[in-house]
Amino acid sequence: KHKRYTAYIGIGSNMGDRESNLRNAIALLNYEDKAMVTAVSSFINTAPVGYAEQPDFLNAVVEIATALSPQKLLWLCSEIENKLKRKRTIRWGPRTIDLDILLYNDLILNEDNLIIPHPRMSEREFVLKPLKEIAPGAFHPVLKKTIEEIYCG
Ligand SMILES: Nc1nc2nc(S)n(CCO)c2c(=O)[nH]1
Questions:
Q1: To test ligand 1's pocket by mutation, which of 11, 49, 59, 62 has the most ligand atoms within 8 angstroms of CB?
Q2: Residue 111: helix, strand or coil by DSSP?
Q3: b/e per residue, 35-64, with b = 16+ CB within 10 A?
Q4: In this predicted model, what pLDDT tens digit does every residue of 11-55 receive, in sequence order?
Q5: What is residue 82's three-state secondary structure?
Q6: Cis peptide before 117, with omega less than 30 degrees from 0?
Q7: Phi and psi dihedrals of 124, rounded to 5?
Q8: Bridge partners, residue 140, by sequence
Q9: Contact criterion met (CB below 8 Å) for 2 and 96
Q10: Sign of the Cα pseudo-torsion (147, 51, 22, 27, in order)
């Protein structure tokens, strides 16, 4: 019997057809019987954070029910980035698609290649706004607050 975990994935695109890049990524997150999309936020246009000299992003957050381990889920996210032709040029530069694991149940994980909750999510309006839309009661296990407590925007 597959134990179902709930994970939240932040997605963003600022290259090519941004909307279809997001839609394709969302479709690919329905992965066999291992991951199922259970909620999708609105798509929001956001100014780039970090490396400012690049086009605006289109961002969203997706809720999935999954049997995948965090590392396997990370693998699925990078598979989707590769499939949608993410060219890793400038580290902080434009990209066709970006998938970030934000939350995975109440898990706290600090591995070399994977930190959960995402370390920068609580300072990112482009994450908090769509996440609050679909999961205001989601709990941040490090800050010990719900999303709506963290983001009052
Ligand atoms: N607005 C916005 N700025 C960003 N800077 C980076 S890096 N990214 C990629 C996500 O880590 C984004 C993004 O998705 N949206």
A1: 49
A2: strand
A3: bebeebbebbebebeeeeebeebbbbbbbb
A4: 999 999 999 999 999 999 999 999 999 999 999 999 999 888 899
A5: helix
A6: yes
A7: -110, 110
A8: 145
A9: no
A10: negative
Which amino acid belongs to residue 149?
Answer: E
CA–CA gap between residue 57 and residue 46 (Å, rounded): 5
Could you give the CA distance from residue 44 to residue 125 in angstroms, rounded to a whole number? 11
**CA 102/CA 143 separation, integer angstroms:** 13
> How deeply is 3 buried, as exposed, middle or buried, from its count of CB atoms within 10 A (0-12, 13-18, 19+)?
exposed
Q: How far from 94 is each of 12, 53, 85, CA to CA, in Å?
A: 10, 9, 12
Catalytic machinery residues: 86, 95, 98, 100
**How much is the ipTM here?**
0.97
